[in-house]
Amino acid sequence: MSESYVLGIDVGGSGIKGALVDLDTGKPVTPRKRIKTPKGFERGAVGETIAKLVRKFDYSGPVGVGFPAAVAGGVVLTPPTAHHFPGWVGEAVDRQFTQATGCPVTVLNDADAAGLAEVRFGAGRGVGGVVIAITLGTGVGGGLFMDGRLVPNLEVGKLYLPGHDTVVEQYVASRIRDEEMLDWADYAARVTEFLRHVELLFSPAMIVVGGGISSKHRKFLRPALLERSRLVPATLRNEAGIVGAACLAAEQAER
Predict the structure, then answer these.
(1) Each residue's pLDDT tens digit, 230-251
(2) Ramachandran region, residue 2 (left: φ > 0; alpha: ψ -120 to 50; beta: rest)
């Protein structure tokens, strides 16, 4: 494989997925491989699953891992979203996953990874000023970018909307739509309420909405209801986290 191909991995609640990514185009160059996420989300088991995925690609270079928690300097700052699995906060997962895989591993928040891909190669490419990438899935994530540079760990899923007594990720995550059996009109109203609050707080030039549900964006995104921000669906869909993780791993390897 070319040296411009880097392995990106996206750790999710149900599956851990990866692919080799061409850093010139931002596109995967191999079919995506997936292994079921270990039940209980225990650190050792997750690390071994990531190592197993690396071996499936017969790969030995830098690895980027998007992880569902705030991460700074390779250390987990918050419980993984949205199940709050124990045993992660304060752990140096960069080092642990590096030991498990035998490869230099860089870990970042999964929404940051997805947003990085959209800013480099997708809907946010070339957009100046503040761009916020939102992911709707098991939880709600957010990546904040200023002139294309990542400001990590936005954690918009932990916001409280005015008049609500629960955090956003328990109100607008796509998981909540399924659990509460919301129709698209009701879900669209919730998403709009959330995005208008994001616009009020940050005044971004653009809000990019991703996550698996973004393929159905016409059913729940209402761009005309925002006052200042341009609202667009993500273009890289489920590949974004893998692509963004690979990008950051490559940058770290060059330092």
Answers:
(1) 999 999 988 999 999 999 999 9
(2) beta
Question: At residue 204, what is the residue type?
Answer: P
Tell me the CATH number of domain 126-235, given options 3.30.70.20, 3.30.365.10, 3.30.420.40, 1.10.10.10: 3.30.420.40
Question: Strands 75-76, 140-146: parallel, antiparallel or unpaired by DSSP?
Answer: unpaired
Our separate counts of H helices and E strands in the chain read 6, 13
pLDDT at 13: 82
Positive/negative CA dihedral, 141, 252, 74, 238:
positive
Residue 138 has pLDDT above 90, yes or no: no
Q: Compute φ and ψ for 234, nearest 5 degrees.
A: -65, 150
- CB-neighbour burial class of residue 166 (10 A; exposed 0-12, middle 13-18, buried 19+): exposed
For the chain, strand residue ranges (E) read 5-11, 15-22, 27-28, 33-36, 63-67, 71-72, 75-76, 105-109, 130-136, 140-146, 149-151, 206-210, 230-233
- Report pLDDT digits (tens) over 75-93: 999 988 756 778 999 999 9
Question: Whose structure tokens read 């860089």?
Answer: 106
Spatial distance between the Cα atoms of 30 and 22, rounded to a whole number of angstroms = 10
